[in-house]
Amino acid sequence: MPITSVTSDPVALTLVIVGDYAVPVERLWEAWADPRQIERFWGPPTWPATFVRHDMTVGGRSDYFMTGPEGERSGGYWIFETVDRHRGFSIRDGFSNEDGSTNEDMPSMRMDMRFESTGDGSRFTSTSTYPDLTSMERLLEMGMLEGITAALGQMDDVLDDLASFVAGLATHSRLLDDTRVRVSRVIRGTVEQVWTAHHDAALMQRWLLGPDGWTMPVCEIATTVGQSYRYEWESDDGAHRFGFEGELIDAQPPYRAVTTERMIGTDGPSTVNELTLRAVAGGTLLSIVITYPTQELRDQVLATGMTDGMETSYARLEAMLTVSA
């Protein structure tokens, strides 16, 4: 059991949880930075969490929901106030409604997470500060203390598996709900290199090709919010051609970009693609959350082998970055 102490102070309006782990502090940090891993411990065993967004930058937001034994859901969000890699972060933690909006009827609190090296590994200290005694008592009566203790009690297994989970995982897709999919891949390269590779036309035309036998003759990139982009691919024999276009609707270089996407020549609704990049021990964790207009379209796209095609492109990008290093 990694939890070494739990202290509730109704005078200071704080709940302090300390855990000690036999891993380097960098390893502990990555368990919180990677949504694929945080899902394995944030939420009690009977209420596992699903993160539909995890934007671990100052001002960024994470959205998640926990699913109960009978399929019931409880949503939450984090807003990052500070982020100091390998040292800690602070968040505003609150409840969400079913549609993802903030639940104003429930209290929020501030959580400060600190990471430090010890002689035997690393220590994690979580300090939750409540706005008032009524809010503190309400949340504790709801079982917050038992829930967070059970959740963090799962971290040992996650940390034991972290090295193989990060280093050896190719492009992986996970269904988040009826319309959203998260695609993840660790790419050997810096965040800045991976960002540039997504925003330099000459570089994109070298790696964003999917399976062999295709070229990318059109690569018009949106660099400013509100600008449109257009990508087109053509088979080597010239017999087939397709493309996508859309608009850049939000950006925080070099960590986050949100775009709409629709196939050229169709009148159907667009998808929304949220790209985030995070530095991890193996390189850069790339995550894309794709929101489809319908479950039917989501399933149709996945059935085309989208994930395999993306893996081919990302492997090509990784090889390109390795050569240039």
Describe this structure in words.
This protein is an alpha+beta fold. It folds into two domains: 3-163, Alpha-D-Glucose-1,6-Bisphosphate, Chain A, domain 4; 172-324, Alpha-D-Glucose-1,6-Bisphosphate, Chain A, domain 4, CATH 3.30.530.20. The chain has nine helices and 16 strands. It has helices at residues 25-33, 35-38, 133-141, 144-152, 155-167, 191-197, 201-207, 295-303, 306-324, and strands spanning 3-9, 14-21, 49-54, 61-67, 73-84, 88-96, 109-118, 121-129, 172-175, 180-187, 214-220, 228-235, 241-252, 256-263, 271-280, 283-291. It has an eight-stranded antiparallel β-sheet with strand order 1-2-8-7-6-5-4-3. Helix 1 crosses helix 5 (155-167). The longest helix has 19 residues, at 306-324. The radius of gyration is 21 Å and the shape is globular.
The tally of structural domains comes to 2
**CATH architecture of the largest domain, please?**
2-Layer Sandwich
Span between termini = 41 Å
Number of helices: 9
**What Rg, in angstroms, do the CA atoms define?**
21 Å
- Give the strand order, joined by hyphens, for the main sheet: 1-2-8-7-6-5-4-3
User: Judging from the principal axes of the Cα atoms, what is the shape?
Assistant: globular
* Helix and strand pattern: EEHHEEEEEEHHHEEHHEEEEEEHH
CATH topology of the largest domain: Alpha-D-Glucose-1,6-Bisphosphate, Chain A, domain 4
Mean pLDDT: 90
